[in-house]
Write a structure and sequence with these properties.
The protein is α+β, with helices and mostly antiparallel strands. It is built from 4 helices and 6 strands. Helix 2 runs antiparallel to helix 3. The termini are far apart. About 15% of the residues are buried.
């Protein structure tokens, strides 16, 4: 065997060895999703192979890591993805998906990743692409789930309360002049006094000069 044939054989063996891990990776496919969150009663389980392939191909599980966690997020959707390893379904990632406004990419908080045979805790924040976010939204819509935005809305502005208008208290005007009694009352009192005096005088006269 000449040198050329030996080099070709060696190169073929190397290519074959490099292809083995690739075949193992291809044997791992997304087989199951469990989802819980706002608008979902209990837990939603999805396992349709076509849907799983579309979601995986959209890059939903392969995003750029954010340097720091975003702020202003409320409740998200807990997602656990399972791989189908030669017929055996094992969880390989745990995350919380935070949808934003429709048409805008959401956020993903990874809380667990498969390391060896067990899930290990992680703390990674990713932002989805439009394509991967749309793929997940379409999957939820197909299963009659309306995603609720995790963006916390600012409380509505409260109109200021107008201060109560206090009417000024006007003190009654007190006249400095003495109050004069009504003239009619004085005249009536005087008449009564005169009549009373005349009656008394007439009575005395009658008593002092009795008729014969």
């Amino acid at each position: 065997m000449n040198k050329t044939k030996r080099h070709i054989l060696t190169l073929t063996m190397l290519i074959g060895l490099l292809a083995i891990p690739t075949l193992v990776v291809f044997a791992k496919e997304l087989g199951l999703l469990t989802i819980s969150g706002p608008g979902i009663k209990g837990e939603l389980t999805l396992s349709d192979p076509k849907d799983m392939m579309k979601l995986e191909q959209s890059g939903f599980f392969d995003q750029a890591v954010l340097a720091k966690a975003p702020t202003g997020l409320g409740e998200g959707y807990s997602v656990t993805a399972h791989l189908n390893l030669d017929g055996k379904v094992v969880p390989f990632v745990e995350m919380v998906y935070y949808p934003t406004n429709e048409g805008q990419p959401g956020y993903v908080h990874y809380t667990g990743r498969l390391n060896g045979e067990t899930l290990q805790k992680v703390d990674e924040w990713n932002i989805l692409t439009r394509a991967s976010d749309d793929a997940f939204r379409s999957l939820m819509t197909a299963n009659n789930i309306t995603l609720q935005s995790a963006l916390i809305k600012a409380p509505a502005a409260v109109a200021p309360v107008a201060p109560a208008v206090v009417e000024p208290v006007v003190a009654p005007v007190v006249s400095s002049r003495p109050v004069q009694p009504p003239y009619m009352i004085l005249a009536l009192v005087a008449t009564i006094v005169v009549l009373a005096g005349a009656g008394l005088a007439l009575r005395r006269r009658t008593v002092s000069h009795p008729s014969a």
